[in-house]
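Re: the 152-residue chain
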Amino acid sequence: MRYKTYTPTLESAASERKWYVVDATDAILGRLAARIAAVLRGKHKTTFAPHIDSGDYVIVINADKVRVTEDRLDTKFYYRHSQFPGGFRQTPLREMLAKHPDRVIEIAVKGMLPHNRLGRQMAKKLKVYAGSTHPHGAQLPQVLDISEVKKA
């Protein structure tokens, strides 16, 4: 008898997508982002394949209540450059959390996804909201306990 390895197809992976809601209240930023990235990639599924986007949709609520360890609020910076002379800008994490808490989680998760077309496709399945409400009720999302997700 000859055994064959099961390889998931793009159609089978896309048909099994679920929606999850994650509450970021008092969650540590890096650990939260690592576990969300694992769900977006599909590493929690038995049909995981690194060349296929088999992950699920993740909705993050209460992004403004995320925690960071030690003195990260003042020592971590977000950098950007306008490509003009003198156009280098840096923003501390404290200011970023005050103005755009959703971007903090988005940037952290994107850094943990593959840096190619597939990673950009996976990042589109992440929806982050600063408050406790979201407009995705029609998708009937399940509550995802981040502590249950296996580390990637």
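The chain is about 30% helix and 15% strand.
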